[in-house]
Structure formats: C-alpha cells, structure tokens
Amino acid sequence: MAITSNLFINQKGSTTALKQPKEIGYYSRNQNGEYLIQQQTQLKYYYLPNSDLERNLDLSSGLKKFKNCEGTFEDTYTIHGLLKSIQYNEQHKGKRIKGDIIATTETITKLILGAFDNTNINPIDMVVVSYDGQLFIKERKQVTPATIDMNKYSNYKFKALSTLSQSLPLESREILEKRHKKLCNNGDKFVSVTKTGVGKVKLILSADIDCIFDFKEENKDNLKHYTQLVCNPTVNTISESHKFENGMFRIWLKCFLAGIPRIICGFKDDGYILKTVEEYATNEIPILLKENNPEVGSKCLDAIKWYGLFTEWLLKIIPHGDTKEIKPFKLILADNHLKLHEIEASDPEFEHFAQGDGVLSSEFKEWRSSL
User: Fold this and answer.
1) How many of the other CB atoms lie within 10 Å of CB of 280?
2) Under the phi-then-psi rule, with left for phi > 0, alpha for psi from -120 to 50, and beta for the rest, what region is 292?
3) Is residue 283 within 8 Å of residue 260, measured between CB atoms?
C-alpha cells in the first residue's frame, strides 16, 4: 500500500535548535551547464565604490544581449552538481557523508515559505527520493521562459556591475572602467555546499553564492566572507516599505539557511537607475524587521519552527533505512497542507525518478553502490 501523509502548514513546531552551517565543498557551473567540482572559476569579488553611484548606472542596459543559458539546460532544478560535490567529498574521505536530507537551499527556502505564501505565488511541486539512508529533494523539472522580464534582468545587471572575476589588485584598469558594459548570463554561477541542521535533523545544502565581500582564504571554510546581492525598487511609501520588508524576510531566510552573513541591497528607481546601496548583517535582519514591522519580524522565528517541523515529519513518514532501493515520493502544497504521496511502480513517473536520472544521477548511484 502506498505511503501518504499530510502536514497542516499552520501547525506549530517547537524546534528552534539550529546547527551552524559549515562549508564542506563548492563547485562552479559554466554557461554550458558543466559542473567544475572544487573549482572557484565562477567565484566573484564585490566591488562597487561610492563614486559609481554618481554615474547613474543603468540596470536595464544590455537586455537584448542577455544570454539565457538556463533556457537551454535540460533541467534547471537538477541536483546533479550537488551530488557530484558530495561524491567528491566521499571519495576523499572514504565514507558516506552524514546527512538526513540533501537538497538545495532554494528548495528548502521554498518549503519554508509555503507556510506563509499563497500557492499562486509559491507553488510547491517536488519529488523526494529515499535512497541509501538519506532523503533527496528536488523541484520538478519546469519549462524555463525563453526571455526574462526587465525587473529580473536588472538584478542580474546589478550583480554584474558590482562584482569582479578577480580580487581588485589583480584586475586591470580597463576591466574596471568597462564594467558597466559587461554582458550578463544566467549560466555562470558559484555554489557552496554546507553541512547544517535543525533539531535532530542533519542537512546537506547547496547555495548559489554571489560574491566574496573582502578576501578569500585558501583551503578554508569561506562562509564568513560570502555575500548575497539583491536589488529592490526604492522605498518611498508605506506600502513599498511593507513590500521591501517581506522581500528581506525571504532573502534573510535563504542566507540564514546557507550561513551567508552579509546582504548588500541595491535600490533602483522606476527607470532602473541604481540610486543607492545598503549593507545588512544577516543576523540583524530579524531585529530590524521586528522593530519596523512586528508581524513580519515574528515570521522569522515561526519559519525556524516550521523548518524543524516539516523536516522531522519527512523523516518520520518516509522509510529511509540503509538500503540501495530507491523510493520516490510526490511532495506538493495544496489546501493548506504539505501532501506526501508515494510514487508506485505502476505510476508512469516511477521509472524516471526511481530508475532514471530524474533525481539521482547514474554516476552517483554507481558510486554509492561501490562505497
């Protein structure tokens, strides 16, 4: 009989104990969708001097030349890069990595936000696979739009304008002066892999990293140097302030999960001109939100409790013994409940998720079978 279970999103959890994230690996992805494990070729360095804000930097320029690499990728939600990083770690240590749940930070963030967002804003349609004593979660493959809107593009442009491919002393004057002409793409990215936990649940998460704020330490955990870059409309009214606070809650959540300590926010006007930049410490955002909007501020603690509750629920409901048998499950949000349903062998999707590369890559399964 198929396993099914529902979890009410307004159910209150009690877990607030968190394990500090620790970086255990990283990788770069290029415009061809290739994963370069333990390589920092796509790691950027923050550089946006105050004098640049006087130049009326146009965050809309270059849209027609934007390279939408993800539109050509087979599955933008794949976790194969994360699996390659885990495999690299295990090959060098000679043992399986300890962790109950393996996923991207974006996936876990989305599951947490499910308790706060309308399903039209944040639809949840995921697959959970039980394999080798661990749960692997990924979002379902979706069609990537062929084009992006100006608002989304301006975020890419802000990140391109405010980062360098090398630390400042190594960059040429020509590169610095022509940064505003830099073309953008969504294929290149640097990803950090961390070990973290909530309550008794241990997680291995991957997170996209925008840049290093100050300097990089060789052969060390660089989490404390990482920075999240975001770009928001300028805030001039109370309604705009509320929208900004809700947006910062979402950004805080992602950075909190990944262990990213700093958020740099650019503000653009209606004409997509960069007007100003503010820096925020991730651990101070709940305090700022509570002072300005207690309702939003209280969501930070509620988010942690929900995080602990749904991860414990998944581990309780899904069998995850040390077996090489793969059991896939559907995980959706509907009618104010997270709904889990086992995908049986008779289901047309079973072969793709249980035997194919829908979640776990053939390379990873072969490695685990040999371990």
Assistant:
1) 18
2) alpha
3) no
